[in-house]
Amino acid sequence: SQQGEEDPQALSIQEGENATMNCSYKTSINNLQWYRQNSGRGLVHLILIRSNEREKHSGRLRVTLDTSKKSSSLLITASRAADTASYFCATVGGFKAAGNKLTFGGGTRVLVKP
Amino acid sequence: SQTIHQWPATLVQPVGSPLSLECTVEGTSNPNLYWYRQAAGRGLQLLFYSVGIGQISSEVPQNLSASRPQDRQFILSSKKLLLSDSGFYLCAWSVLAGETQYFGPGTRLLVL
């Protein structure tokens, strides 16, 4: 079963607007990662946030983590057409039995219209 | 710098035929290696991972197998493909388990 579930499944915005997507998970985590995938390509790592962190920034990206709500959000500010892609969250379990494997959600498809 | 290669990029195979997909990593030693499958419009499903030469862990029972004959080479195989094996296959590597993974460009497999 998938640990992370993204919301919304699809998002359409105008260039220059902000895009926010959310990820919810069910069990405790060691870290949570966000990846981007352009159509037909491999995934590109964006940000890793650990369970003891609440917020991280990278360029126009801002990730928050609320472990009490078991949720994370990814904010893309001042979006560009090149941000059009699918965005995935992936969690790494907090228990040794989880084997430190990444469990991916179904993704949010973002379309940025010029 | 590290790079990861996958080939072929696209493959069309008949049902019942064998499969061999190859993944190689350059610029790093003793990486953790992973094979994922992605159905159209969906997330990634972990198929196999390897922490070292000859060490393979299977996540999903199926007619696929994986091998790691060399430190930076990871191969996904099947003796007889099924229609349900169609999908996008991604190889990835990481320095440490549970940390950032770096993905290859993927192989799109269509079984007819």
Question: Please, could you describe this protein's structure?
Answer:
The complex is a heterodimer of chains A (114) and B (112). With 114 residues, chain A is mainly beta. In chain A, strands 2, 4, 5, 9, 10 and 11 form a six-stranded mixed β-sheet that branches. In chain A, strands 1-3-8-7-6 form a five-stranded antiparallel β-sheet, with no helix packed on it. In chain A, β4 (29-37) and β5 (43-50) form a beta hairpin. Chain A has strands at 5-7, 10-14, 19-24, 29-37, 43-50, 55-58, 61-66, 71-76, 85-93, 102-104, 108-113. Chain B has 112 residues and is mainly beta. Chain B has one domain (3-103): Sandwich (Immunoglobulin-like), CATH 2.60.40.10. Chain B contains no helices and eleven strands. Chain B has strands at 3-7, 10-13, 19-26, 32-38, 44-52, 55-58, 64-70, 73-78, 87-94, 102-103, 107-111. In chain B, the strands form two sheets. In chain B, strands 2, 4, 5, 6, 9, 10 and 11 form a seven-stranded mixed β-sheet that branches. Chain B has a four-stranded antiparallel β-sheet with strand order 1-3-8-7, with no helix packed on it. The model of chain B has no long low-confidence stretch (mean pLDDT 94). Chains A and B meet through β4, β5, β9 and β10 of A and β5, β9 and β10 of B.
Shape of chain A: globular
**Poorly predicted tracts of residues of chain A:** none
Given the helix and strand composition of chain A, which structural class is it? mainly beta
Radius of gyration of chain B: 13 Å
CATH superfamily of chain A: Immunoglobulins
Mean pLDDT of chain A: 91
Stated plainly, the CATH topology of chain A is called Immunoglobulin-like
In percent, how helical is the residue content of chain A? under 10%
Most residues in contact: chain pair: A-B, 25 and 24 residues
Question: How many domains make up the 3D coordinates of chain B?
Answer: 1
Please trace the helix and strand order of chain A, writing H or E for each element: EEEEEEEEEEE
Q: CATH homologous superfamily of chain B - what is it?
A: Immunoglobulins
Oligomer: heterodimer
Report the sheet with the most strands of chain B, covering strand number, pairing sense and barrel closure. Answer: 7 strands, mixed
- Give the rounded overall mean pLDDT of chain B: 94
How would you characterize the largest beta sheet of chain A? 6 strands, mixed
CATH topology group of chain B: Immunoglobulin-like
- CATH architecture classification name of chain B: Sandwich
